[in-house]
Every structure is written in C-alpha cells, then in structure tokens.
Amino acid sequence: MISRTRRRFLQYAGLSVGAPRLATLPAFAAETFPSRALSLVVPYPAGGASDVTARIFGESIGRSVKQQVVVENYGGGTGAIGANKVLAAPADGYTVFHGSLNEVFLSPLLNPATRYKPQDLMLAAPIGGSNIVLLARSGLPADTLDKFLDLAKESKGMSMTYATVGIDSFYHLMGEALGARIGAPFLHVPYKGAAPALAALAGGEVDFAILPYQSAFDSMQGQGRIKILTSFAKSLPAPIRHIPLISQSRQVPDFEYAIRGGYFVRQGTPAERVAVLRKAIGEALAKPEIRTRLEAEGRSVAQPIDSQAQANQYFDQYMGSVTQLIRSVGRKPVA
C-alpha cells in the first residue's frame, strides 16, 4: 500500500499512482542523426559524371556528419530505377538521392510507367549543374559544330545516330530539339548511363553523343578517340574554357542548355534531419578545394543555402525549365 507521503510525491511529479512503472518513464531522447552510415544513391553506373560528383560530395558530407557515406549505383530507366530505390526506403534521411532534372522531373513527367511524381521527392539542397557537350566520333568528317550540322543536313535519308543516358532524358530531348531546329532529325540510341554511351561513341557505334562533360573527355580527344565540338553553356569554368561555346555557332548560337541537380530525400523526411544534410552539403560547397575539383570536372557550383524555403524555390525553377523543354519538342507532360 502506498503511503500518503509517497502518494503526494508521485502526484507532484505528475505520475499516475496506479500506472505501471514503465509507463511513467519519460520518452527516450530523439535519436542523434545520423547514427549510422548514409546511402547516397546515384542513378547511373559507376564512372559517369554523376558518379564522380557524388563521390566528391560523399567524402566531404561523411566528414561533416561523422558517418560513412556509401555511394550506391543503380543504372537504367533514365534514372528512375535509382529514384525508386530512394522512394522505397524509409523517409528517415539515411537514403539520399544524387538527382537532377532527368530523374526527378523528366522521367515522371514523360513516362506513364514511372510510378512516382516529382513531388514525391524533396530537394534538400542544390549542388550546381553539369555542362553539356556534343561529342562526335573520331572518324566523322567535321571538326566544328557548324560543319557537323552541315554534314547532318547533307545526309540524305540517313539520319545521324546519337547516344545519351536514356530515353526521355534531358539529353535525348536536346537531340530532338536540335534536329528539329536544323531540319535534320537524328536517330536516338539510349544507354544506361554516360559511361556506356561514351564507350559506344569511342567504339564508333554512334555518330555523336550529348553528355555531361567529364575531364576524361579531353584526354580521349587528345588520343584521337572522340571530338569535343561544343558546350551548350553560356559560360564555362576556367579549367575548361578551351571548349567552344554554342554562342560561337553561326547556325544555332542561342541553343543554350544546362542540367541542374542537387540532393533529394523522400518527401516526409523530418525537417530537422533534412537540415542536418543541408548543412553538410553547404559545408562541402563552401570548401575551395571541392569547388576546384568540381570546376575541373566542368561543373557549375551552387552557393550554399540555409532553409527549406530556398530549396523549394530551386525545386520550382527546375520544374519550370523542364516543362519548357518538354513543350519545345512538341511533347505534353503526363497529367
């Protein structure tokens, strides 16, 4: 039997006299995040531009959060396979998506079989963009973009073939738009990522490729294996200013495109965990040595952000640019 003094103590402490002891214990403090390794999902095979960038960021993020960051590659489906891996995981912040306009927006907006919407993912922080280049096979008799376009227009009944990272990718739509612009449609050949597409180009299996720039392209050009004909960017970081800009073309000087990306998590991830990730990403973006490494790979580097509201603004901008590209090639977004 509980004494009067004991009863008064329990009531003062806000505890129920008749409740079991375990029910009166306070809830455990929230789990320190992260308390284990993070998975950084890259939606393309190892060796491509996305993979290289993810490993640069993963190394820094791991140091910031004091946990290992494991890069996981899932190629195929124009990035949708990787996105689905993230969406199948718990919304707990431990699975992060190295995503871009391709996988987060284009796949669900163009492919009815893609079973997710852009809004199923939320942007934790932008990281910048990749400079897109047009590469030609070494044996193609054209050393400039304009000569390449002239050659394409002269190919009577034989469409030039081009490689990209997949059907309905940003690069695929750019190829369609470029072909329509010059009146010489191209034949698209999709691959599961930039690495196999580049291998196909170097092997002479396709005439050209539209891919995000990698520093390896320069050495391949030096070896006579491929030709870098143009960048579709308005401007380039210092390490790659030797590449001709699209503005130098006399035929399509305004055909400017860049692909943006960032780190996404599944919608519903706790805000405080997203904030931890955003801070770690911002710390990576602020490091001069990381910016130097990224610019050497042809990346434009975003400035750190400090709020979800800012991240949401970037998300909306991405959606707008993708929708505009889709409509420019006569397509309609999936309802």
From TrEMBL:
Residues 1-29 form the signal peptide. It comes from Cupriavidus yeoncheonensis. Belongs to the UPF0065 (bug) family. Gene3D superfamilies: Bordetella uptake gene, domain 1, Periplasmic binding protein-like II. This is Tripartite tricarboxylate transporter substrate binding protein. Keywords: Signal. It holds the Pfam family TctC. InterPro entries: BUG (IPR005064), Bug_dom1 (IPR042100), TAT_signal (IPR006311). Coiled coil: none annotated.
